[in-house]
Structure formats: C-alpha cells, structure tokens
Write a structure and sequence with these properties.
There is one protein chain. The protein is of the alpha+beta class and 107 residues long. The protein contains five helices and five strands, in the order H-H-E-E-H-E-E-H-E-H. It has a five-stranded mixed beta sheet. A hairpin with a 2-residue loop joins strand 1 and strand 2.
C-alpha cells in the first residue's frame, strides 16, 4: 500500500501497537522498534525515498500469521494475542519501463 494510505491506517490501530515489537524490513536489512516514535520516524524516512509498505508477518502466541491489510491486522488484535509485527518497505515501480529497467542492462 502507498505510504499515505499506510500512515493513515496505522493511526487507526496505534493504541494496539503500543508495547509490541515492530520490525521494519528495508533494502538494507531489518530493525526492530520498541516504541512508536522511532517506528514512525523510520516510516517517514522510507516515505521520503518513495517507498511503499506491506505487512509481512504477525507473531502471535499461537504462531506466525499473515495479514494482508491493516483491517485484517485489526481483526487479529481482537482474536489473537499479538506479540510482534513485521512490516516491509519496498520501492514499487509505477511503469512497465521502470520495472524492466530495474533488472539492469538487457544486452
């Protein structure tokens, strides 16, 4: 999802995120965040780079679960005991030409 949509939806569930470990995967690796301010600053930095976001994994007491949207994540908070969440920041090409260029020279 695009950064503005991601930030807007995260605000709706921020109370549920307090006290959880939030992990952000970027092209340079991953880093865990234990407070919302640091996580928010990391999101803003990735947004400046033009990156989009997605949910990779949700760790619960019952095991690892997938959630494809923030709404699905909100439902997990109601039914499962969530321990940590992994988000990913990635650059999403907006054109076919840009996508092809991403693979490098084709000679």
């Amino acid at each position: 999802m695009i950064a503005t949509e991601f930030k807007s939806e995260i605000k709706d569930i921020k109370e549920n995120l307090r006290g959880l470990t939030l992990q952000l995967v970027t092209k340079n690796g991953y880093r865990p965040y234990s407070n919302l301010k640091e996580f928010g600053n990391a999101i803003l930095e990735e947004e400046r780079k033009g990156n989009d976001f997605r949910i990779n994994q949700v760790w619960t007491k019952a095991g690892i679960v997938g959630a494809k949207s923030i709404k699905a994540l909100a439902e997990l908070f109601k039914t499962e005991s969530v321990i940590a969440i992994q988000f990913e920041s990635f650059y999403n090409q907006t054109s076919t030409e840009g996508f092809i260029r991403g693979f490098g020279a084709l000679d």
